[in-house]
Amino acid sequence: MIISENTFNNITVIALQGTLDARNAPQLKQFNSAGAAANSIVINLSEVDFLDSSGLGAIVSITRLKRSQGGDVILACMNDKVRNVFEITHVYKLFDIYDDVEAATLNAEKKQTSL
Amino acid sequence: MKTLIIIREQDYEWLHHFFPDIHPLLVPICNKPFAEFLIDFSILAGSEALRFVMDGPLSDVERYCDNGNRWGIPVSYASIQSTDDLQTVIEKNQRFCSAERVLIINGFIFIHYDKQHNYKTLLASLPDGEILSCDSGSLSLRGSRSETQKVLENIPLSLIRLDVIDVYYRLCMEILNAASSPYVLPGYSNEAYCHIGRNVVISKRAEIRKPVIIGNNVQILADSIIGPNAVIDSNVIIDRESAVIDSIVLANTYIGEHLEVQNKIASGNILIEPESGISIAMDDPHLLTGINTSGSSKSLFQSIVHGLAALLLILLQLIPFLILWPILTLQGKWKKSTNSYYTAVSEKYLILTTTAIERTGPLSTLAAALSLDRFTLLFRVLIGQLAIIGSWPHVVTPSKITEHSSTESCCRAAVFSYAETEEWPVNIGDTAIVERYYAAHGNPMKDIALTLKALFNRIHETNTHP
Fold it and tell me: Of the four, A43, B52, B405, B457, which is 20 to 30 A from B155 by CA?
């Protein structure tokens, strides 16, 4: 899995590419974002071509950590494969999901400044 | 133009009580799923793409509508939070809503339209903002304005709030009684007030009184009376000398002999009186019952594989169990508790005795590491009451029985939980995520591999209960 990092509207955007499964989940969990721990991040899932329960676990764990630090994880650009997994497992109820990275970062920034 | 259809769980929650197995967007209105009326209207309004946005599950709708090829309009899906306001919903669907005019259907509402009208031109000429609204929903336009703008008056549209079963019933009857239906309804219709689907067998001695609408694969046996005002959905059997008058019979329902259904809605073994909203579950399958359409060969294979795995585990655990169980019982480290559980494997409520082993010594640690606390449950797999791996059975109290049968029907109560195969679940919510994932992606052979993984993971577990 390729993990790349960018910044939009002062928000760190982590773009995932490839497979997010049991083998790659630790890579995402250990990924140290350049942004401050308390800041919200946006995860771009448009290029994820496979996601399993361990991958979901990695996203949920990062989110739990971020929320405990006062930040949040916002998901963006889910493709159908990823959305299907979120749908089956009802994980969609835990996240704010945007269909556009820019809109997601704007919202994350808004949330951050309101804190 | 694009159409954004926003529906919230709180608006359709009431429908679950009556039709627990049907997604609210797929509840049939005169044998046509509600979602199809919305799609039809979107097409008439000139939409080139449509998106269903919900804070509840969408998978059933997605399975039915797929990508919209059937209607020639791309259909997509998105999830929102129940607390999101309209502006947040639009922001969350920014890419879909950008650059074009968007028709927003907000709420669990039925739109009264007429297929003869040219809504495309009409809506294009309307200004942005709300077109129509009712108690729980609205129809509005958003986006780039057209040059010529009409004033909002005499729009040939109206909204109905779907909030009680009586409204649903009356809506079906109203559509059925329209001589020239303003909607496209399923089935063949050579004459007014009569629509009949494919593969319908009507006995020569049966009487059909218009208006009626009959779905596909329906059998109407001798001396039965159908109508007036009867809506019979697909896969229905009306047995001899029965009558369906002023009533709706939903799909996969058997109406027994000599039964008169009048001013009612029948769905499976449930009979609903629309006016009062009272529903009765019939216990006698000869009177009224559901027709099971799901294939059983897969579950039979699954039961066999799970049974064999359980048998093998019993053989492996028998000797350690016979040695350790009496010792730990005497030491007070073998703690039993008996509760009532729901299992979708046999669709029954079971009284199960579960065990917790106190890991405070070498023998109890060994017993827990060998998963001996699950030993007695393995026999339940052999008789088909539990699966070898699935969801940890949910404790039910009598007050929660009805609720559980509908909400937890996806859960296959088992000796081992899928969550025990993963290391990340830390709470019940996480456990449910993993269980749902494997419930959808599992197969019998994969289950064996996952059982071995769960057994292996349990060696390092600190407690004996998931």
Answer: B52
For residue B14, give the nearest of B168, B231, B171 by alpha carbon: B168
pTM for this model (two decimals): 0.89
Q: Look at the domain B188-287 and name its fold.
A: UDP N-Acetylglucosamine Acyltransferase; domain 1 (2.160.10)
User: Does ipTM surpass 0.90 in this model?
Assistant: yes
Spans of all domains in chain B: 2-163, 188-287, 300-458
**Closest by alpha carbon to B282, among B303, B261, B302?**
B261
C-alpha to C-alpha distance for B382 and B247, rounded to whole angstroms: 44
Q: In A, which residues are within 8 Å of B79 by CB distance?
A: 83, 86-87, 92-93, 97
Reported as a single tens digit per residue, the pLDDT across A53-100 is 999 999 999 999 889 888 899 999 999 999 999 999 999 999 999 999
Class level of CATH domain B2-163: alpha beta
At B261 the pLDDT is 94
What are the structure tokens assigned to B215, written together? Answer: 């779905």
Minimal CA separation from A54 to chain B, in Å: 7
How far is the C-alpha of B29 from the C-alpha of B248, rounded, in Å? 10
- Does residue B117 register a pLDDT over 80? yes
Span B235-250, pLDDT tens digits = 999 999 999 999 999 9
Distance CA B153, CA B173 (A): 28
Q: What is the CATH number of domain A2-102?
A: 3.30.750.24
Contact A56 B437 (CB under 8 A): yes
Give the residue on B whose Cα is nearest the Cα of A26: B424
Contacting residues of A for B434, CB less than 8 Å apart: 53, 57, 89
- Please give the mean pLDDT across all residues of chain B: 88
In this structure, are residues B175 and B189 in contact, taking their beta carbons and an 8 Å threshold? no
Can you name the residues that pair with B342 across neighbouring β-strands? B349, B394
Nearest to B143 by CA among B3, B20, B28, B313: B3
d(CA B243, CA B240): 9
The verdict on whether omega for the bond into residue B211 sits within 30 degrees of 0, i.e. cis, is yes
CB contact under 8 A, B81 and A56: no
